[in-house]
Amino acid sequence: MSKSTPDPIIVVGAGPTGLALACDLYRRGVPCRVVEAAGERGTRSKAIAIWPRVLEILDGLGVAEAAVRRGVRLHGSTVWSRGRPALGFRLDTLRTRFPFGLVLPQYETEALLERRLADLGGKVERGMRCVAVRQEGRAVSVRLAHPSGAEEATAAWVVGCDGAASAVRESAGIRMHQRLEPAGWIAADVRLDTALDPDGVNYFLAGGRVLHVVPLLDRGPDGMLWRITMNVGRVRPDPDEWPLERLAAQAARRAAVPLRVTEAQWVTGFRVRQGLAAHFRDNRVLIAGDAAHVHSPAGAQGINAGLQDAANLGWKLARVALGRAGDELLTSYDTERRPAARATVRATDRATRAGTLRLPAAVAARDALWRFAQRRDLIERRVVPALAGLSARQPRSTVMAAPRVRLLTEASLSAGSRLPDVRVGDDALWDLLAPLDYTILLPGRQHFDKAEAARLPAGIRVVDDPSGRLAEALGLRGAALIVVRPDRYIALRGPADRPDLAARLIPV
What is the pTM of this model? Predict the structure, then answer.
């Protein structure tokens, strides 16, 4: 089924999602065309936080090290209610090589990904606006407008990563109901006179008013730059009506600790938009990132959800384009990522509503619930892994067996869970996996015999465990067979003597 020349792919949009997808395709030997309406990269960003799972994705793309050097590490968060800490958590106990969050403005993330794309042989064609797409049998026609005229391009696959107002989604006829939340918000990049720790996020809540304070960038002798966000009424605020004095007064009034805004470098107003596309694939057109889902910035999940779309879609689209799998493999992208996006929309909506409660009785009940969760260690065991993106489970699909048990922590080893990156002797487990393909782990077993191995697809890496260290690291008492997908999720956990199960599940 394989072929030497991949089908042409057009990625519309050079934000983080589109760039990450393009990098993933190129590193798998699948070139693509990347078109972007904007003539140049932006210099301001609302998307600034990257959580551990997406740092793992960026690591696979080859840019995590540079991102960590340029960003500000976040090691925890504190939520204040009515002037007192209501709950807090740390990230440094997570089972990942990146047990921290990272604050990095979106334009910095885009710069790193675009540079990596160039290293891989790709480029971004700027000033190319997608006007419409039209499917014609086994091809997609793309109408592009640019300063010197228009162009009709053809591709086997088109991926719309072109934002909430996606032209790809609209012209493909994929429905997406979006609604605006009633509150207006102000976000500003400021310098602060404060004793707040420069490695944590702080949420100050009181009487329905929110102040969100995040360390943004260390700009040398002038000190730390911070991002503050506040809800300020029921319409989208005009930044011109928020001079330094007004920003400073509102921030100081809402903070539970001494805090003074001394300089404002950038101010913007926005309203929260929520929406979820009816489906993420229509035949040969796919959508990802904000083109597929938009939600509240609570929990800073926007850029993280988009890059998880890219990580899920990249290896699947590459296998199909290279002829290593049939088109039906792409159905699993919608099957797996749309429920995850729906869960993110709901979770961020609930977090926003919880943070803006006004009635004293409701606030008291919320705070009591948070204290209970903190005492029972539910925040560390459930909330933090979910926020970090490590506990999300893939549902059963064409490339995912049905799990035997449903476990809710990032350490679970049933089908659908992320494989934890544990230490195996002197190695990190993920370093033993195939960089771009499936891996079969045999914890507690030495190897397959020739007859068993012959049943496997060609090129699959098998990691055996003659010393038993892998089984011990994974907490397994007996031998097992674990099939790990290219995106580091477990596709199957089964008996160690059944390689035929793996052969049936791996798409060829």
Answer: 0.94
